[in-house]
Design brief:
The protein is about 35% helix and about 15% strand. Helix 5 links the parallel strand 7 and strand 8. The protein is of the alpha/beta class. The strands form 2 sheets. The chain has an 8-stranded parallel beta sheet with strand order 1-5-6-7-8-9-10-11. It has 2 domains: about 300 residues, Metal-dependent hydrolases (TIM Barrel); about 40 residues, no CATH class. It contains 12 helices and 11 strands. Belongs to the metallo-dependent hydrolases superfamily. ACMSD family. Pathway: Secondary metabolite metabolism; quinolate metabolism. InterPro entries: ACMSD, Amidohydro-rel, Metal_Hydrolase. One of its GO terms (molecular function) is metal ion binding.
């Protein structure tokens, strides 16, 4: 029988949005924006260009409902970040900044109301790096947010795009964690059926993002940056993208074709193990064991994707019920490693009751 000793549980991977998303298509004069409308059953419907996009429950916006639900699953603290579909990197920069400020103010207000239950991550207009840095500084210095959530790519830029260097400089200076979430997967042609964008496209996005940071020299140029990648399970699926599983292939390619792989960074990819965090969203104990072996016990953080169906519905249960992990290792994953990821921006003492 697994030891059910109580450890502090901090869920890094949860999503939230304001209770109301206005119709920005009318405000800005062009389509593509998500809005919300209330339903008679107490739910809301996310709308995209006048068509239903997704129905959501009150736990997507109601802080008190979230607190009640996480108590039922033994989670102590949630890290709040926006729903990735709201990144809107495709939009005009000023309009994306306007929405980002609205989303960030809402998350910050929730964190201020319940300071021992929530930690906030900001979203930025990453397609306009100067505006992104401006909003990053506001969110950290004025709103007290602990880090940022970004997409796995920024339109046509991978994460090694030179345009993003000013953002990485600012993240190092401000000592914030960077949570990378796969998004904007291909959804047409061969990827159209069977939920392939989420089951297969997301693993590919995660691996492209990690390899871009390594091969593009971002981690080499910015030794203080801390990246955590969402959906640890996606990193291990046998699909087009599987960073820990294909790490040997990636490193072998670096060795045998340096003329292709090592054009921007001559450092072996294996040297960056220990610089990369992932969440624990695995759903399988064997996969968790492999993730720990490849990424390291100190670099895995509890993450559930609350409140969405692909997530772990009882956050941390796989870890806490494991017969293979020591209590010390369980404590690291469930609530210890996250504070190292956030560095100076989060004081662990505030969350220990």
């Amino acid at each position: 029988m697994a030891n059910c000793k109580k450890h502090l549980r901090v869920d890094l991977h949860t999503h939230i949005l304001p209770k109301r998303l206005p119709d920005l298509s009318k405000k800005y004069g062009y389509p593509g924006w998500i809005s919300t409308e209330e339903l008679p059953n107490g739910k809301q419907r996310m709308m995209l260009d006048g068509k239903p996009f997704r129905d959501i429950c009150c736990n997507c916006w109601d802080a008190e409902e979230r607190i009640k639900e996480i108590a039922e699953t033994n989670v102590d603290v949630q890290v709040l970040s926006t729903i990735p579909v709201l990144f809107n990197y495709w939009a005009k920069p000023d309009h994306c900044l306007d929405l980002a400020r609205y989303l960030n103010d809402d998350i910050a207000m929730t964190c201020q109301q319940y300071p021992n239950k929530f930690i906030g991550l900001a979203t930025l207009p990453m397609q306009a790096p100067d505006l992104a840095v401006q909003e990053l500084r506001r969110c950290v210095n004025e709103l007290g947010m602990a880090g940022i959530q970004i997409g796995s790519h920024i339109n046509d830029w991978n994460l090694d795009a030179p345009e993003l260097e000013v953002i990485w400089d600012a993240c190092e200076e401000l000592d914030v964690g960077i949570f990378v979430h796969p998004w904007d997967m291909e959804q047409t042609g061969r990827m159209e059926k069977y939920w392939f964008p989420w089951l297969i496209g997301m693993p590919s996005e995660t691996t492209i993002a990690i390899c871009s940071l390594i091969f593009g020299g971002v981690l080499e140029r910015h030794p203080k940056l801390r990246f955590c990648f969402a959906h640890g399970n996606f990193a291990l699926i046998l699909a087009g993208g599987a960073f820990p599983y294909t790490l040997g292939r990636i490193e072998h390619g670096f060795q045998v074709r340096p003329d292709i792989c090592a054009v921007a960074n001559k450092v072996n990819p294996l040297s960056y193990i220990g610089r990369i965090w992932t969440d624990s969203l695995i759903h399988d104990e064997d996969a968790l064991e492999l993730l720990i072996k490849k990424i390291g016990i100190d670099r895995i953080i509890l993450g559930s994707d609350y409140p969405f169906p692909l997530g772990e519905h009882k956050p941390g249960e796989l870890v806490s019920n494991s017969e293979k992990l020591s209590e010390e290792d369980k404590a690291k994953i469930l609530g210890g490693n996250v504070f190292e990821f956030f560095g100076s921006r989060v004081d662990k003492k505030l969350f220990i009751q």
